[in-house]
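User: Can you fold this complex?
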Amino acid sequence: QVQLVQSGAEVKKPGASVKVSCKASGYLFTDYYFHWVRQAPGQGLEWMGWINPHSGGTDYAQKFQGRVTMTRDTSIGTTYMELSSLRYDDTAVYYCAREKTGRPFGYWGQGTLVTVPS
Amino acid sequence: SYELTQPPSVSVSPGQTARITCSGDALPKQYAYWFQQKPGQAPVEVIYKDTQRPSGIPERFSGSSSGTTVTLTISGVQAEDEADYYCQSVDTTDTYYVFGTGTKVTVL
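Assistant: Here's the predicted assembly.
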């Protein structure tokens, strides 16, 4: 069955970068797009962007353009989200999600907590 | 930027019907999806493409669409349905994805 397993929690200083991984299994990695979504403590869901694992093509929400980079390594079935110039308000749980036959967020990873202390 | 607006909270007694609305200008042209999220857990899709229910989701969950508003209905609410619910869609350019503001459903 489809599984998305994300990397563990991170604590980063303001101004630093964080790279979160999402390892997929149970299907052909390049067949479906990935999205990244974040959720600040007590807040709602916020879409960050997507990556096409076949071509490597990406599109990012305007809010994150210039600060986020999504990549993939097809040899190990893993996609990555790197966020730079971290600020206190980047503290959030970051989720990867995979398309499911025309449904953009059909499968979700377990989430990765990134903490940027003030 | 495009926004989807939901009521912050809905309270309902067990066995009653909960209705959660989601309003957005592009909804007449774009599909809506609904997600349930319980504390400490990842979201789970409960409705896709306005009205379709994924396998494994109870029949008491249903979706409808009318103009710029989509609605998630939970009929015969159970205690386990207490959660946050989010709608999701894309803007008119079919480029940017957006989630609604979220609705907390409380089962009294």
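Residues 74 and 94 of chain A are 21 Å apart (CA to CA). Chain A has no helices and eleven strands.
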